[in-house]
Amino acid sequence: MSKQKPIHIISFLLLFVFAILPLILGFGFALAYSFGLIGGLNQGFTLDNWSALFENNDVVISFLYSGWLAIASLTLSVVISMAIAIFFHKKFSKGIYSYLVYMPLAFPSIVAAFFFAQFLGNSGILSRICYQLGIIDNIQSFPNLVNDQYSFGIIVAQFFLSLPFFTLLYTGLYQTERIDDYTQLANSLGAKNRQSIFRISIPILLKKSFPNIVMYFIFKIGAYEVPLLLGRSTPETVSVLAVRKLQKFNLYDIPQGYAVAVIYTIIILSLLMLVLKTNKNEYDI
């Protein structure tokens, strides 16, 4: 115990210096800048930057829009990957499918965004395929699925990036949690396949993957490359809005950008606390 104690202290110090301290300093800097305590135009403590930020509904719409995109792509990923794990888990445990599922994970976000911009645009690959098959009269008549009002391109790209992760997660959980044994036991006691899926398989997978879903939601709500390349100029996601304000030549917009970062950090920390509390309650049980 005496030998392990210095190791624990050193590990905590390294974690604090290289992980926790930069976050605290960054958050403090953004908070001070948003209140006018530092910066090129600082004149002391003021709430003008925050009031200017909320003069219109852009920041509220931005957060709601980012949350909606994250929820939409995550819902598709979770539902489809869970169905794959329940019905095709044996195919993904070995063979070619177990290797192919890793391929989308090798695509950086910006590469996936460029790919779907070329694939889904009204003059892209999909429109040309439809034209060659005679589905549309000309390439220009193909609906633009990029920079569209429904954010179809963003949702598809984020779905493409998150589907393999949840497929691997749920196929692994299906085996480690021995769901097959539970479903067979339920079927032997008279339960139908549908009852076994909705009352055993899905609840277990959702409960075990809830922290991962929340963590991936945090990652998706702060995505930058995909919404920047595939989204419209309005509404903007949180990250695009913050970067735009921070990089504008108007110095009065910079404190507002830091204010957006502060709000985002508070929301993320709240979600992280939710995940930690959920895990703690699970272990306590």
From TrEMBL:
It is a multi-pass membrane protein. Keywords: Cell membrane, Membrane, Transmembrane, Transmembrane helix, Transport. Its main location: membrane. Residues 63-275 form the ABC transmembrane type-1 domain. It is found in: Cell membrane. GO terms for cellular component: plasma membrane. GO terms for biological process: transmembrane transport. The chain crosses the membrane at residues 12-39, 59-87, 99-119, 150-170, 258-276. CDD domains: TM_PBP2. It comes from the Bacteria. The keyword Transmembrane applies. PROSITE patterns: ABC_TM1. InterPro entries: MetI-like, MetI-like_sf. Pfam families: BPD_transp_1. Belongs to the binding-protein-dependent transport system permease family. CysTW subfamily. PANTHER family: INNER MEMBRANE ABC TRANSPORTER PERMEASE PROTEIN YDCU-RELATED, INNER MEMBRANE ABC TRANSPORTER PERMEASE PROTEIN YDCU-RELATED-RELATED. This is ABC transmembrane type-1 domain-containing protein.
